[in-house]
Amino acid sequence: MEGAGAGSGFRKELVSRLLHLHFKDDKTKVSGDALQLMVELLKVFVVAAVRGVRQAQAEDALRVDVDQLEKVLPQLLLDF
Fold first, then answer.
1. SS3 state of residue 51
2. Could you read off the pLDDT of 32-64 as tens digits, one per residue?
3. What's the rounded mean pLDDT across residues 11-36?
4. Residue 13 is inside which H or E element, if any?
């Protein structure tokens, strides 16, 4: 994800399968735009989690807390 070249991220097919695993109705469909939005949201979520872990490690914290996530949020706004 982070620092990787173009083409990195979640494949739409994978995200679609993950979404459909949690739908109650097998006939539920996801539009292409909704699927693309979920791909982007997952990417942002994973980058935030990784940066939160790195921030916690830099602070010698044993777990990621809201404080570490608040510190990396401005970086996310600049990247996305």
1. helix
2. 999 999 999 999 999 999 999 999 999 999 999
3. 94
4. helix 12-21
pTM > 0.85 = no
Burial class for 69, CB neighbours closer than 10 Å (0-12, 13-18, 19+): middle
Q: How far is CA 32 from the centre of its chain?
A: 18
For residue 77, give the 3-state DSSP assignment. Answer: helix
Alpha-carbon distance of 40 to 60, in angstroms, equals 30
Q: Which amino acid is at 66?
A: V
Q: Give the integer Cα–Cα distance in Å for 27 and 69.
A: 37
Instruction: Give the DSSP letter of residue 9.
Output: S
Q: Is the pLDDT of residue 9 over 90?
A: no
Q: What gap in Å lies between CA 62 and CA 18, rounded to an integer?
A: 30
